[in-house]
Each structure stands twice: as structure tokens, then as C-alpha cells.
Amino acid sequence: MTSQRGNQSVVAARGRTAAGRAPGPRAVEIRNAALVLFAERGYAATTMADIGEAVGMRGPSLYKHVGSKQELLTQIMTGTMDDLLRNHRAAVAGCEDVVERLRRAAEAHVRYHARHRLEAFVGTREIRSLEEPHRTEVLERRAAYEQAFRTLLGEGVQAGRFSVTTVKLTSYAILDLGMGVPVWYREDGDLTEDQVVYQYGDFALRLAGAR
């Protein structure tokens, strides 16, 4: 990958990255460059020099904004999980019907993965590259996110609104719906984001045996 291609990819990644993870515009630019390179090359094969080249900065200037490559990976992965948890809470807030809450939660999950393909890809592949305590922190967030879906499903089963063989496997299946979207979805494809989100919301309700 040439420097020009890397810079183009960074520009393409902007706008799909959640806000509020970095203190200033240069730090955001560095994070976005790292995200693109981690997705394209992998964490291990990316150096801080590569990231600096992508944003037109050399070592001393780069380290004014970020401490290490590991710090960047941690920002990306914890930020992704924090966004998912926050979106889930917003999606189900103020809704009493458990079926509608599951639909909203599933749609929020799918929409995030459609809009943040690089974060989703890096988050899935690079958990092995996180050092402690960051790896445990991300895994705890993942467990909390899965538990939120499991809780919804359990409430629906108790209320007689869902029919599932196991709540645990159903929660995994619903999460997998969203996690697969970044592999194939493109903004200029045959289906709009809203069409994908709505259909996948339907799929989630079918998996839950919604009544």
C-alpha cells in the first residue's frame, strides 16, 4: 500500500468513526489512520512509523498526541464497545414492549456494524493483540453487551412473547447477524442501510420466535 492510498483510506474512514474518543483533531486523525492500517495490514504488521507516514507526521510530533500503538488499539476497541453499549441503551429506552425492544436493539446493532466496518473488523481480529489489562476490559464490555441481549430474550420468554430453545445461543445468533454485515455491506450496493437494518430486525425476531 502506498502512502497516497493510505491517506485516501484515512479520509474514507472519517465520518464512520464515533466521536469523542480523542482530545483533538490531530489525535482523531492519528486514530483513524491507525484504524485503517490495522484493518488493512493487521496490528502486528503496522508500525508507528507507518501511522505517522499516513498522517504526515514523524516520531517526535506523533508522540505528542499518542503514547503507543497499543494505546491506539485500546482506544479503538474500548471505544467500539462503549459505542455499542450506549447505542443499545438508547435504542431500548422508553419502550415497554419486549418484542419492540429486541427489534430496536437488533437494528441498532446492525446499523452500527454497517456504518463502522473497519472498527468491527479490527475488533473481531485483534482481540489477541490487546495487552492486559486492556484485553480483560474489552472482554468485560463484550460480556455486558451480550448479556443485554440475553436479558431481553429472557424477559420475552418469561412473558410468553419469545419461544427459544436456549437464550444463550439465540443471543449469539442475533449478535452474529450484525457482525457479518461488515463483510458484505457497501453504501453503494443494491440495498440501502435502512433496508438492511429493517430486514435484520425481522430476522432477529424470527430467531427469538416472537409472538
TrEMBL record:
Transmembrane segments: none annotated. Residues 24-84 form the HTH tetR-type domain. Residues 1-23 are annotated as: Disordered. Pfam families: TetR_C_24, TetR_N. InterPro entries: Homeodomain-like_sf, HTH-type_TetR-like_transc_reg, HTH_TetR, KstR2_TetR_C, Tet_transcr_reg_TetR-rel_C_sf. Residues 47-66 bind DNA. Keywords: DNA-binding, Transcription, Transcription regulation. Residues 10-23 have a biased composition (Low complexity). PANTHER family: HTH-TYPE TRANSCRIPTIONAL REGULATOR BETI (PTHR30055:SF234), HTH-TYPE TRANSCRIPTIONAL REGULATOR RUTR (PTHR30055). This is TetR/AcrR family transcriptional regulator. It comes from Streptomyces violaceus (Streptomyces venezuelae).
